[in-house]
Write a structure and sequence with these properties.
This protein is mostly helical and 158 residues long. It has 6 helices and no strands. It comes from Macrophomina phaseolina (strain MS6) (Charcoal rot fungus).
Length: 158
């Protein structure tokens, strides 16, 4: 396993890792909505209003709110994927993968994955205004990491 990773660009491997991280809340929402029986999930039109209306009747208010937060965490993660991929691709083109430490691309990729994992946990556990502010702070840290990397790449690609 160690030799496999040594032959891969960790920053590029972070892209599928982030995709998997982004899918986890969606998979959890299905398991949550079906009370642990995902085979009972109606996958014909999973974004339909009818499905959501049925869930809101079957689940109590707290359960339905958790389902909604899981889906929202998934959607937000997918919405943030393009800026992360852009930062990774442009960072590699700019040679940032050769930079060591906190200014390097591997550090950025790892930090972004950790921030986004924390974001998802806080989003799903969010039941107070205070937690919603922490979620927002984590969101802006993640986006800020991407912007920082994009600007470093822009400076190198002049």
């Amino acid at each position: 396993m160690a030799s496999l990773l040594s032959n891969l660009s960790l920053s590029i491997v972070a892209i599928p890792a982030y995709h998997l991280l982004s899918i986890i809340p969606h998979a959890a929402s299905i398991s949550y909505a079906t009370k642990g029986q995902p085979s009972k999930w109606d996958n014909r039109n999973p974004r339909s209003e009818a499905l959501k209306a049925g869930l809101s009747k079957r689940l109590d208010a707290k359960q339905y709110a958790t389902y909604e937060r899981l889906e929202a965490a998934h959607a937000n993660s997918m919405e943030n994927m393009p800026i992360f991929i852009a930062a990774i691709v442009l960072g590699n083109l700019a040679g940032l993968h050769k930079v060591e430490g906190a200014d390097g691309l591997n550090w950025f990729a790892g930090a972004f994955l950790l921030v986004r994992a924390a974001y998802i946990v806080v989003y799903v556990a969010n039941d107070t205004q205070a937690k919603s502010y922490l979620r927002s702070v984590l969101y802006f840290i993640g986006v800020g990491l991407c912007w920082k990397t994009l600007l470093k790449a822009a400076a190198q690609l002049v």
